Automatic annotation (TrEMBL):
Gene source species: Arthrobacter russicus
Keyword set, alphabetical order: DNA-binding
InterPro entries, alphabetized: Cro/C1-type_HTH, Lambda_DNA-bd_dom_sf, RmlC-like_jellyroll, RmlC_Cupin_sf, TransReg_Diox_bact_type
UniProt-recorded name of the protein: Transcriptional regulator with XRE-family HTH domain
Domain of life: Bacteria
């Protein structure tokens, strides 16, 4: 059983944050300006890195210094109907409610969209690499690229 010593906290935090960043041991060490063997030892709970080494690693991973020793917290978020920031569309009966914001090092937001029958809502182009996921819970909608929309019904999913 782990005693959660400072070196164990740093080791688990380092592994967790390096995995989140999608970086190899070699690339993280290169970015931090430290030896790969030093980083490997730290991930194995060996050694006691100085503040400079920890700071360099955090800079390489683009994380706050405290994240290496702060165990992850289990968090739940409940958004009830009518809660959340709401954004109405211009020119269409369409309301988007923000349910979850993007976590650090990710590009993802989750919205609940309520659209009434009527005029079409054409979205502006998204940044390159953006993938939208749409699930229809009630009614039907034409969804997809302007040149190839697909009619969706309750339970249908498109990306």
């Amino acid at each position: 059983m782990s005693r959660n010593t400072p070196s164990e906290l740093v080791a688990s935090g380092l592994k967790r944050e390096r995995a989140k960043a999608g970086l190899s041991l070699s690339e993280t060490a290169r970015r931090a300006g430290i030896a790969k063997s030093t980083l490997s030892r730290l991930e194995s709970s060996e050694g006691n890195p100085g503040v400079e080494t920890r700071w360099a690693i955090c800079t390489a991973l683009e994380i706050p210094f405290s994240r290496l020793v702060d165990p992850p917290q289990v968090r739940s978020q409940v958004v009830r109907p009518g809660q959340g920031a709401r954004f109405a569309a211009e020119g269409a009966d369409y309301v988007a409610t923000l349910l979850a914001v993007c976590p650090p090092h990710a590009r993802r937001d989750i919205f609940l969209i309520v659209a009434e029958p009527g005029s079409a809502k054409a979205s502006d182009l998204h940044p390159a690499g953006t993938v939208e996921h749409v699930v229809i819970s009630s009614g039907s909608a034409l969804v997809g690229p302007a040149g190839a929309p697909v009619e969706l019904h309750p339970g249908d999913y498109i990306s």
